[in-house]
Specification:
The chain is built from six helices and ten strands. The protein has two domains: 148 residues, 3-Layer(aba) Sandwich (Aspartate Aminotransferase, domain 2); 109 residues, Alpha-Beta Complex (Aspartate Aminotransferase, domain 1), CATH 3.90.1150.10. The two termini are 32 Å apart. The protein is of the alpha+beta class. Helix 3 packs parallel to helix 6 and helix 4 crosses helix 6. The strands form two sheets. The chain has a six-stranded mixed beta sheet with strand order 2-1-3-4-5-6, with no helix packed on it. Strands 7-8-10-9 form a four-stranded antiparallel beta sheet, covered by helices on one side.
């Protein structure tokens, strides 16, 4: 995976899409571009210096960084920033949000159920009601508020230091055996992508869950284009330690994963 993340350049429906790391140059400006791992502000600025079309929209995917990496959206040169709430903001699954530099450029995709202007068949023009059709996910919002309060109380820097130490525990075990291939041996996020030689990804995930109680995620991880580049599109296994996971559990999980890998290659 390129050091500075990835770009997805959107084209009209049917024209296809392409994925290119910025080590090979930034994609040509078009109707829409999406960049992942958005804390690389210098990379943003380089991209924004390219000739822009009138309809360009530059979207930053903050799913893996919101709550973990400090960002000033007022200074970040993006048109939109989208994030999920169930990762480093510690909210329930199904929560998230987005920031728009110029909301008037984006049309609502859902209508009605505002509870504030029911006679109007269209969404209100004001924010945030413009994009809030239907009943709010109040339990999810409460969880998101509680997660952010925990993050503010604990401190984002303390959370970052903790989970990077936990990540190092896994890497220590994984890199000590030839039975495990790590695709990001120097991760800048607490996410480790790996495969076990001689054992299918889904089979490995099943064994780890049923025999050891270790939850991993297997497959393409919502990024099939990136997997085409790093592993030929076969996918991998992903584990992501949390500040809520005791370090002793991380150590034990890392040892168990290595044990499974060594046994799979002992024949």
């Amino acid at each position: 995976m390129p050091r500075h993340g990835s770009f997805l350049h959107g084209q009209p429906r049917g024209a296809g899409r392409r994925c290119r790391g910025n080590q090979a140059g930034y994609p040509a400006r078009g109707d829409l571009a999406r960049v992942k791992r958005p804390w690389f502000r210098a990379g943003y600025r380089r991209y924004r210096q390219a000739p822009a079309g009138a309809g360009d929209i530059f979207i930053a995917d903050g799913a893996q960084t919101a709550g973990l990496v400090p960002l000033d959206l007022g200074k970040l040169p993006v048109d939109a920033f989208v994030f999920t709430g169930h990762k480093y903001l510690f909210g329930f699954p199904g929560t998230g949000g987005f920031y728009l530099r110029d909301p008037a450029r984006i049309l609502p995709t859902r209508q009605g159920g505002t509870g504030t202007d029911s006679k109007n068949p269209f969404q209100p023009e004001g924010m945030p009601e413009r994009f809030e059709a239907g009943t709010h996910n109040y339990p999810g919002l409460v969880s998101l508020a509680a997660g952010i309060a925990f993050l503010e109380q604990t401190g984002a820097d303390a959370v970052t230091r903790c989970i990077h130490k936990q990540t190092a525990i896994f890497l220590e075990e994984f890199l000590a055996t030839d039975a495990i291939t790590v695709y990001n041996p120097a991760p800048e996020l607490p996410v480790i992508s790996f495969t076990i030689r001689g054992l299918g990804n889904d089979d490995a995930g099943f064994v780890l869950r049923k025999m050891y109680g270790i939850v991993t995620r297997t497959g393409l991880h919502c990024a099939p284009l990136i997997h085409e580049r790093i592993d030929g599109g076969s996918g991998c296994i992903r584990i992501s330690p949390s500040v809520l996971t005791p370090r002793v559990d991380c150590r034990r999980a890392a040892e168990c994963i290595r044990e499974v890998a060594d046994r799979a290659n002992s024949r």
